[in-house]
Amino acid sequence: MKFENFNILATAGYTPERVVPNSELTTMMTTSDEWIVQRTGIHQRHVVTAERTSDLCTRVAQQLLQRSGLQATDIDYIVVATMSPDYQTPAVSAQVQGNIGATKAVALDVNAACSGFVYGLQVVHRLLMGDSPKTALLIGGETLSRLVDWQDRSTAVLFGDGAGGVVLTSALAQDGAFIAADYRTMGEQGRYLTAGANGVDSPFASDPQPVLPFFKMNGRRVYNFAIKQVPASLRRALDQGHLAVTDVDYFILHQANQRIIERIAEDLTGSMTQFPVNIGQYGNTAAASEPLLLNQLVASHVIKRGDVLALSGFGGGLTIGTMILRY
Question: pTM for this structure?
Answer without folding.
Answer: 0.95
